[in-house]
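[Protein data]
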Amino acid sequence: MSSNEDEAPDNRAAWNTISAAAQARYGQSQPLDRFYWCWGGPSEDELQLLGDIQGKRALVLGCGGGQDCMALMRMGAAEVTGVDLSDEQIRHARHLAEREGVSVRLLQGNVENLSAIEGESQDVVVSSLVLTQVQHIDRCFAETGRVLSPGGLFAFSIHHPFDACTEDQPPYGILHSYWQERDDYEWEDPETGLRARFLNWYRPLSEWFRLLTEIGFQVERIMEPRLGPPPAWAKPAAWEEGRNPDKRELIPDTLIFKALKPG
């Protein structure tokens, strides 16, 4: 759903609006012992992008309700910091950490500005299905490079731009140009009818690669995992309601990058 610049959605306000509903519907069912690269899709156990993070310092960009932070701690990270734009998502993350008896640092803020985090203080930076909501992704990448220690790892997943520009029902026609970066989206909770509009930026794959390498990252791997049926615990996310699952067999749903900071 596209809109004009003068009616741009406010992602922070949108997440604050739907946070409780989203956590009740999805967050409570997500296992806390695995890091997932997409909702109901492959976990880190399967893809092995991060390697051994035992004793490492990790940062989660767009930590949401804190599930990814919990997973990294249980994978052996020594310290985990989570940053999220939404005040309400951070509140949920703090409640989850307290409930689980896990100590993590949680910060409300825009991932385009990580000034609260010391330079070269992180060994691993991860993000799962968040960065398409970041308008100035070059600033986010530059800040990620600043906070990573030399040789540090940056891995993230995003909604695949090809999937985003095609219809969710057969014959999966083209909705808009693949090179159209901005595509706003309206989220609706299937149970409560609660709605919120989000601003999304779907850059072509080549643009993500260019921005990473111009910052100075060495892109080690690009993945387009072929997704099967989601596991039993994963309820259909709001953006998947009414979607034909066969599309996953034809068009990549998720795009994943693994990059290293030279060191």
Q: What stands out?
A: Helices lie at 11-27, 44-47, 67-74, 87-100, 137-147, 161-164, 205-215. Residues 1-6 have pLDDT under 50 and may be disordered. The first strand starts at residue 57 and ends at 61.
